[in-house]
Write a structure and sequence with these properties.
By secondary structure, the protein is an alpha/beta fold. The chain has 7 helices and 11 strands.
Length: about 250
């Protein structure tokens, strides 16, 4: 019986952070084969691809194993949600039309078996720094996206991967900063004041594996990644557990 809900983020397929990105893609497909037996819904919480950009008639080369597997699962009745991350935010209609995915460009609130979930990739939430705000505005600019689309992919794709690799080399992935130092924890505490009935705040983005209670009936969950941790969350209708897969 398909009754469980799964959450996974930050595979960054195509990234040089992987020893072998295709091998990680195969591993992710094996995980999907495993969970499809009892999965009612799968939430892919952003940065599944290290870079994804949809031109009008073109999508990035590669990822055929994963895209085929996602299409197979949705054809078989598994509901799959795909969140835009900060690496794969330039989404169009390809994934919904070809793979049957449900796209989310903003945080999403849902109730599952009496539990209320606040779901988001996590980039920008609680981070009010002017530099991040400016960068986010640039990345979400429709005019700049049109300009970017006019450049041949032979230039844009290496540029995007180079940017990603450089940000990691310069400290883009920080270790856990503690309860007071994490933007997403502070954001969740503030949002809980407005929405005290949220049971789970679930995020990707930070590449940290965390399940932290912030109130009697509310927790912040960070999903880790599929670069070193190969982690995910499983909700059985009663409890939510973080797990690592091998």
């Amino acid at each position: 019986m398909r009754s469980k809900i799964y959450f996974l983020a930050d595979a960054h397929l195509g990234s040089k952070s992987h020893v072998d990105s295709v091998d990680t893609e195969r591993k992710l497909c094996r995980w999907l084969d495993e969970v499809k037996r009892d999965a009612a819904v799968i939430f892919l919480m952003g940065d599944i691809f290290d870079y994804w950009y949809e031109y009008r008639y073109v999508v990035p080369r590669g990822f055929t194993r994963l895209l085929g597997k996602l299409g197979e699962l949705t054809d078989d009745g598994v509901e799959i949600h795909f969140f835009a991350g900060n690496h794969d935010l330039w989404l169009g209609d390809y994934l919904p039309k070809e793979c049957g995915l449900i796209l989310h460009l903003e945080p999403y609130i849902t109730v599952v078996k009496g539990k209320k979930f606040y779901l988001a990739h996590g980039d920008g939430l609680g981070d009010g720094s002017p530099s991040f705000y400016l960068l986010r505005k640039l990345f979400h600019s429709k005019w700049l996206r049109k300009c970017f689309s006019a450049i041949h992919p032979r230039w844009t794709i290496p540029l995007a991967h180079g940017w990603s690799a450089n940000s990691r080399k310069n400290g883009g992935l920080m270790p856990y900063l503690g309860e007071e130092g994490e933007h997403l924890i502070r954001f969740s505490k503030e949002r809980l004041k407005e929405m005290p009935d949220i049971n789970y705040f679930i995020f990707g983005h930070r590449h940290v594996l965390l399940d932290l209670p912030i109130a009697e009936e509310s927790r912040v969950v960070m999903l880790g990644d599929w670069i070193t941790l190969f982690s995910y969350a499983e909700f059985d209708g009663d409890t939510l557990q973080l797990k690592q897969w091998s």
